[in-house]
Amino acid sequence: MKIHASNAGSVALSISGMTCSGCANAVTRVLSRVPGVASARVDLASGRAVVVGEARPEDLIVAVEAAGFEAQRAPGEASGDLQ
Question: How far, rounded to the nearest angstrom, does the alpha carbon of residue 6 sit from its chain's CA centroid?
């Protein structure tokens, strides 16, 4: 399913439990597999992920937690910027 940018929103998540780039890659992979996700970027240093698409935030959190990490919506998540 192709997601048009005009229909896509972004969600920022705070991710805890990542200790290395392998962890960040694993989180990126599981987020990318959630239906409705157009792209996912994870920043290990800040512990944040930004997901673009139509996926529900609850589904993103469930996917991250199923992979063994903790996740919650990030404060100020509407901006979708990794800083």
Answer: 19
- Which residues make beta-bridge pairs with 13? 49, 73
* 3-class secondary structure per residue, the chain: CCCCCCCCEEEEEEEECCCCHHHHHHHHHHHHCCCCEEEEEEECCCCEEEEEECCCHHHHHHHHHHCCCEEEECCCCCCCCCC
Structure tokens at 82: 């990794």
CB of 14 within 8 A of CB of 74? yes
For 9-57, what is each residue's pLDDT tens digit?
Answer: 999 999 999 999 999 999 999 999 999 999 999 999 999 999 999 999 9
State how far the Cα of 48 lies from the Cα of 27, in Å rounded to an integer.
10
Token readout for 31 is: 């987020």
